[in-house]
Design goal:
The structure is a homodimer. The first copy, chain A, is α+β, with helices and mostly antiparallel strands. Chain A is 33% helix and 18% strand. In chain A, strands 3, 14, 15, 16, 17, 18, 19, 21, 22 and 23 form a ten-stranded antiparallel beta sheet that branches. In chain A, strands 2-6-7-8-13-10-11 form a seven-stranded antiparallel beta sheet. A five-stranded mixed beta sheet of chain A has the order 1-4-5-9-12, with no helix packed on it. In chain A, helix 7 runs antiparallel to helix 8, helix 7 runs parallel beside helix 9 and helix 9 packs parallel to helix 11. The longest helix of chain A has 24 residues. Chain A is globular.
Chain lengths: 638, 638
């Protein structure tokens, strides 16, 4: 079986702590993510291709003369769908998908100008080429085209789409390289794409341009005429000096992906340091329990430290995907398990919640509390984007999120494991087959339904090697055995249990990660969650959804009795899964003693009254799949 | 002395519980608001006239052919400044101010089309007349013109500005009246203006049109092409059926002002009922302690019930002013003190905080918590509007708030007192002279520095009459004496202590409103303030500003020891006032035990450590007058 490179395949291993595996070397064999990957390919992909046609995103490229339909960066939606399909066929070829890529590639080739330029909105005359970079998304779109072209070439070996992408990249090189221009795109994205193109071609021109586009930023080169400030565009502070994530969340995190990508190829430590500093600040002070990042509707931006309102959380799906992309690059650079921890939090909570259980509905933004059941989304039309309705719409005018989910799920194998000279590292626990050269292992598990993970050796390789198993940050008391014998190891500083031995075919490693239901509280400076707790079990964040509570219980007026036991309850066939629900004792508060203005003198508080009830919590990712509802992750603690 | 009608002067008293006083019948004679009124006239007015010139708002009207500068509804800024000046000269004539009005009126007359139409943005060719009502603000601007014209005629008896306004109104009548059109402006405002024009002219055409413009709304007549939904424009539900405030806050409240104005003239009870229902819902569940309303940046809108994040509070100054205007109309309709309570909360907190102590800087939006000191506002340029800087800018591209503050302060006398057949009602306690026919009283007080209010009778009138004194909702143990003898009365259901007697010149009534420092908590469903308290004293809300705290105390990491005493401390000359500051014992928390992701297992919480400190709270309205700072109103309770 040929090896097929996946996303983020550095050219040399010099600056890698651990090395990525190809698309056919880490293969999902079932489970929650394996099933999703299959439905992503079979259901979501035709759904998305249909909406690209219906919304005019493909027609914009077919008929450049006509007025451009939809948002001005709609080309990028086409490219991201192409990228998703490319990873799919890279894992597992399919004639139908090949044909879809060929058809779209023909459209792109016809639309592309002789010098390689391609942007349907500019070519339709709505902007002057390269004249309004702060808004136009020209480099952003070409960045996504490059990623699609690289994905397709890696996945299929074919050059059709790749050639279109490379010619577009060369057009950018002609205009921008060697500091011919001092500015850049308002929306970062092309930086990481150019590094991947360098990896694919070996042509350092692309790497140099990526670095240039990082370097020019932070010097006020973008002027949005007062509509947005420099922070919004990550143009206020040079990237090596920036201390925390700020401004538009997706832009900030895409930029940092490019920063780490340039580090991985050049070893420039200041770049890695900046990315680590910003990521640490974000993870400690600007990340929701659900993995949401970017709390503000205003500017789709990061808030200040600990500005994490559950109800007003923006939490754009793309921002969390961008964080997964960043975490993976930092994982490769450092080998540390905290990045896989963050990926796990994002995958099992926000990313899973972003998509309906039938995988054809999507949330653009993801609150951690919904006070009032909003009307269901229309199923045949799509909203602009934010102010999510009560259920997941099928598409958006600003359709960045659905194709981003698709390409992430299609390439998810790439995030499971890595290898190094000493052995194999397992980061995410899903049923999978992992191959590195002469070693092959199989992972079997019901995780996160329970914490039992079994790894069996299918090919043992030559000589001893290490198997490193991530112990998630939330886990206490992890144990491991080899062929039934306890292995006396505890997690190392990077967060891994490491087993070194001479392996034999048929060896079985059993990892046990205890995952009792637990209650989680927020940092005391996170005001919006003061006095409240969240229910978690393993990597899964829970929520109370109104539909599961006893009659006449208002989710806005419950408290959780934190000193009473929590119970697990298996619910087979619940929303197509067999999840474990959690029941807890709560108080259904009667607030009728409050009247008038909503404010009371502390010394005159009305007596608190209510009745004891049993509350039922479901995994957060399953909410809003049974019609509009009231929901909350953080529950006032009694 | 002639009587000069002020804002909201109903044509008949039939539907009034209490009647308003004219501009020269309720005259501020000093104190906080009297001084502000003076500075508003002498400092803020020339400042505003200067910015209207500098920003092109007047030039837009002078040179209709040229491209329109600034926002498309900049005419309304000119009109609101004209209205403010008109109330000023109505109270107290001034040749310089008269000249300013005449100059601007000449500009308007020259710009006005033969049929009365006037809108500099449309006349400059940027919109087709009446063709994009959902966005264009044409009726909104003409509404403000009408209010200015009415104010000027009431204040001066002059017809120059009034004639321009009436001709513009007649142009609207020609286009819209008798249901010739089924649509209306995206931004309510003209409804209340048309009622005032009816009051001034007696021509019922204007009243009928006002009612028509209320009636058409709520039937989806406005289509903003998906950019905003019907709720944003108050076009989703007919106004008589609406149960709570929703959508853009200023629009919702301006509309309700028109609703109550039409009720006051027609007595249609369904209108008053709707306004009361919506106001009660807003006051109990959607109003900040500071009087801010409209919590969301997104759409400048009301959030759901109890969605009141202190840090992300939008709290547009204009929205609170709109609530003051609404409360006053409801006060006239019902005579109930709860509306004066709400006006008091708004005046002493949000409105006072909206303006710098020198009265030339303004906040457009007003958070109740600032986590990070933002850069100071530039003094010579103006920002767009939201995302307030660390101090108050001198003006805004969207300059709705500063002139709104000006017209409110200029006409503040109108909100102090009312009269009825039975006597006089005092609603706000400021040094003032109040005349109603043959009765004149003088109010002397240092309120809210203390709760001693003395009312003396200057003219006693004929026969007995009642003096009604509002007892604020926050007050416990109010007492009153007449000529030194305790008067045995307690507040009635409407919230007033009522004294009926045969009054004599020289009678002195002494009202004492105890105002110990108190701690206030939010409704338990207001999640964002759970576990926190605010300091209040009388009507004044306090805050912690970083500059007042001991060295190295982080306002983001303090807790207030709620069982320990609070101390009052007079600080003379503090920011030009002699306010009472409050000191309290707090804990300066050391959060260094928290590390990593920001989330902790409830059973594994790090020990809480910190040091006892003395915290100093200042009146909220004084914050951000000493450079950028960190600030919070709600303080975690220990």
């Amino acid at each position: 079986m040929t090896s097929v490179l996946g996303p983020v395949s550095p050219r040399s291993a010099e600056h890698l702590a651990v090395r990525p595996l190809g698309l056919r070397d880490a293969v999902l064999t079932g489970g929650f993510w394996g099933r999703w990957q299959q439905v992503n390919r079979e259901v979501t992909t035709p759904h998305a291709l249909g909406w690209l046609e219906r919304d005019g995103s493909v027609d914009n490229l077919r008929r450049l003369a006509g007025p451009h339909r939809g948002l001005w960066f709609s080309d990028s939606d086409v490219y991201k769908v192409l990228e998703a399909i490319s990873w799919d066929v890279g894992r597992d070829p399919a004639a139908g998908l090949d044909a879809a890529v060929s058809d779209l590639t023909r459209v792109l080739r016809a639309a592309q100008e002789p010098d390689g330029y391609l942007n349907s909105n500019v070519q339709a005359g709505h902007e002057v080429q390269w004249n309004n970079l702060v808004i136009s998304h020209e480099l952003y779109c070409i960045g996504h085209l490059i990623q699609a072209g690289v994905a397709h070439r890696r996945g299929t070996g074919g050059d059709e789409l790749f050639d279109v992408a490379r010619r577009a990249a060369d057009c950018v090189v002609t205009e921008f390289a060697d500091r011919r221009r001092k500015d850049t795109d308002g929306h970062p994205e092309i930086e990481m794409a150019l590094v991947e193109l360098y990896r694919e071609t070996g042509d350092a021109t692309y790497l140099d341009l990526a670095r240039q586009l990082l370097d020019v930023r932070g010097h006020g080169v973008l002027d949005a005429n007062g509509h947005f400030d420099s922070t919004y565009f990550q143009d206020a502070v040079p990237v090596r000096e920036q201390s925390t994530v700020a401004g538009h969340a997706v832009r900030a995190l895409y930029l940092l992906c490019g920063v780490v990508d340039v580090y991985l190829e050049t070893g420039e430590r200041a770049l890695l340091d900046s990315a680590l500093r910003q990521w640490e600040s974000m993870t400690a002070t600007k990340t929701y329990l659900t993995g949401a990042v970017g709390s503000r509707f205003d500017g789709e931006a990061f808030g200040e430290e600990y500005e994490l309102p559950p109800d007003l959380a923006y939490g754009e799906t793309c921002a969390t995907i961008a964080n997964i992309m960043l975490c993976w690059r930092l994982q490769l650079a450092t080998g540390e398990g905290r990045f896989a921890d963050a990926i796990e939090r994002a995958l099992y909570n926000l990313l899973a919640a972003s998509t309906s259980t039938d995988r054809t509905g999507f949330f653009y933004n993801n609150p951690a509390q919904r006070r009032v059941a909003r009307p269901a989304a229309a199923t045949q039309t799509r909203p602009a984007r934010a102010e999510a309705p009560g259920t997941r719409p099928p598409w958006f005018a600003c359709a960045c999120c659905p194709p981003n989910i698709m390409r992430t799920v299609a390439s998810l194998g790439g995030y499971l494991a890595t290898y190094s000279d000493s052995g194999v590292q397992l980061h995410q626990y899903v049923p999978a087959t992992i191959r590195t050269g002469t070693v092959t292992i199989a992972v079997e598990t019901e995780y996160p339904r329970d914490g039992a993970i079994e790894v069996s050796v299918l090919e043992a390789g030559d000589g001893p090697w290490t198997l490193a198993l991530r112990v998630p940050g939330w886990c206490r008391g992890a144990t491991v055995s080899v062929n039934g014998t306890p292995w006396p190891a505890s997690a190392n500083a990077a967060g891994y249990l490491v087993i070194e031995r001479q392996w034999r075919v048929g060896d079985r490693v059993a990892l046990t990660l205890p995952m009792p239901v637990r209650l989680t509280v927020a940092h005391p400076a996170a005001d919006a969650m003061r006095g409240a707790v969240a229910i978690e079990r393993g990597p899964v964040v829970y929520c109370l959804e109104s539909v599961d509570q006893p009659e006449a219980v208002d989710v806005n007026r419950v408290e959780l009795c934190v000193d009473e036991p929590l119970h697990e309850q298996v619910r087979e066939g619940f929303l197509g899964e067999d999840p474990i629900l959690v029941t807890a004792t709560g108080l259904a508060r009667d607030d009728s003693g409050w009247a008038g203005t909503g404010w009371a003198d502390l010394s005159e508080l009305p007596p608190e009254v209510g009745r004891r009830v049993t509350l039922t919590a479901i995994p957060y990712h399953l909410w809003a799949n049974r019609g509009p509802s009231v929901m909350r992750v953080f529950i006032p603690a009694r």
